[in-house]
Amino acid sequence: MLQTDQAQSNLKGMDDLDFEGWNNADWDGVFADHHTDDVLVDWKGQPATHGVQEHIDAMKAYVESAGGTPPQITSHPIMFGSGEWTCAVGEFEDGSRMVTVAKWRNGRILEEYIWS
Question: Rounded to whole angstroms, how far apart are CA atoms 106 and 116?
Fold first, then answer.
């Protein structure tokens, strides 16, 4: 499948989000900038969050419960996209993985579905 410029740009955004925003806990900067204000996030079977601040608050609580430092994402060994949708496998330092499927609007995530 040939990826569109839109999908390639969104995949670059996923790299920025994980490697800069998440790994550095830059919640109000890079992390917030890569989500729409009205983002819907369904994460690991938890109740979905609605809005970027609710998503940030949930991620901060998760990181705090895990010791205060985000588990570091070291690579995206699998990434692909089509139009406004992307899929990325994130690999953590300990070898565990997560999968994120995201729908993008104007270069920001509108919907995000995360499994780990």
Answer: 27
Mind listing the domains of the chain with CATH numbers? 5-115 (3.10.450.50)
Which among 27, 18, 20, 33 has a CA at the least distance from the CA of 116? 18
Cα(70)–Cα(91) distance, integer angstroms? 13
Q: Using CA atoms, how far apart are residues 84 and 91, in angstroms rounded to an integer?
A: 23
3 versus 102: which is more confidently predicted? 102
Provide the residue type at 54 as one letter: E
Backbone angles phi, psi at 96, to 5 degrees: -70, 165
Backbone φ/ψ region at 30: left (φ over 0), alpha (ψ -120 to 50), beta? alpha
pLDDT digits (tens, 9 = 90+) for 54-110: 999 999 999 999 888 999 999 999 999 999 999 999 999 999 999 999 999 999 999
Mean pLDDT of the chain: 95
